[in-house]
Amino acid sequence: MQHHVQDLEETRELLAHSEKRLRKLINVMHEILFELDQDGSVSFLNPAWEQLTGCSVEETLGRPFTGFL
Description:
The chain has 69 residues and is mainly alpha-helical. It has helices spanning 2-28, 48-53, 57-60; strands spanning 34-36, 42-45. The protein starts with a helix and ends in a 9-residue tail after the last helix.
């Protein structure tokens, strides 16, 4: 049982490290990365959105993406 707990802890640490690297990459990329929910509203934006459009990320989240086309 202790071996399984140790394996899970190692996996958790690897996942946390991987997530940290991915977040860093997403935050420094120059291209816009976005995610839409099932209704077509913006649910995620990286900082490039604000840099390239001038619209703040906070004000854009939750709004329909079609309004920005």
